[in-house]
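Example complex used in Figure S2.
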Amino acid sequence: MTRTDSELYEGLRAGDKACLEMLYRKYEKLLYSYAYKMTSSHERSEEVVQDVFMKVWQKKGAYDEAKGKLSTWLITITRNSAIDISRRKKIDTYEYDERDDVNPDRDHFNSPVEKQAEHHEDREIINEAIQKLNEEQQRIVTLFYFKAYSQSQIAEALDVPLGTVKSRLRLALGHLRENMDPARKGGTQNE
Amino acid sequence: MNDNRYCDRLIDYYNGHLDQKEEAEFEKHLEECPDCQAELAEWKALNAELARDTEQVEPPRGMEDRVLGNIFAEDTEREENPMDERDTARHKNEKTTKTGFYKKLLIPLAAALLLSVIGNIYLWNAQQQTGSLSEALLEDGETINLAPTSESEDMNAKMAMHETNGSQTLVLQAQNFTDLNEGEVYQVWLLKDEQPYRAGTLVPNDSGEGYTVFTLDDAEDVNWDTVAITVEPSPQNQAPQGDIVMSADF
Ligand SMILES: [Zn+2]
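Predicted assembly (441 residues):
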């Protein structure tokens, strides 16, 4: 019998390596794929996944069942880790990027998350639900979720006033939610 | 009650654009603001669904072994008294690092090496077990102690240069480095005939410890005369503008 996520989590909290391994095998591909979507780099994606399970194993931050599925929690950690690792990487390799860069100010806002994602944008398969949005909404969702832009970077990229970013985002996410829900009904209930 | 000033920071909080102080302030607000809590929860839930919908990418061969191996290996490092006599590298390492300082550095250092250029990762892995990185740092190069510019400072920094495949890698470890103002960074410089060369940025953790691993890829033949650490107003500075806080001559 396979164990539930909660059982695996409890087990690994108690120091059971086998539970961590099982949890790892269950989510490796999902988290790796998502990390790859965020970083567009195989090396960094592996690093991100390692960071996630390292944190889980070393009990940095606790999962609270009341707050939702374990997989959602893992995805959130993965996202934060991808953001951190990409930005830190930027500092470490600044020397190389900077030499070719005529406009360092602009580049400052262009972390690898963003830069590489832009690079791959046309090759990337955008989630179906996002594709149903209008162009501006697609863009705001991508900038917000996958490029992890700040509010002011989003305003600049879309050329809209800063104060309107949040309401535009809400509107786009509202539509996105509507697009996703029919798909969700057909999905699995329990992970 | 909610304060719009704070609610407007939710995007920047979620996307990691707040500095430590702002983040702490926002988290305080978050505890008391049901609107932000609800919105953040919805963002996370929606993001999780997008993530589950993401095109699947095959993880590289051997990733599970590497990742789990690294996690459990670090576990052993973290234990007070690893008794595995067969692991000679680690055993030897234990003897050379009495203070435990370098042991603590292993975690960030391993991360730093992963972050450094890919070539380096393979190079390091090929040469050394990850468990004996600190040993490599200490024994593989000549360690230089940097002295603080001001007598009153009790900052410590050690560095070593490593020659690898025609390029130089600078490894620097810092202790007792104080927190800087927002936007400021510690910047390491190598100098030759008073010409500065950027050699990495140092970001100390909460306990004032930091490290940097920096590969100077086109400077393999340079015999540096000085290493210095400055406080710079921006990590983008090409030439030092800030005050030198520590330095040493080679
Ligand atoms: Zn609020």
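The domain at 1-94 of chain A is CATH 1.10.1740.10 (Rna Polymerase Sigma Factor; Chain: A). The pocket of zinc ion is lined by residues B 2, 6-7, 29, 33, 35-36 (CB under 6 Å).
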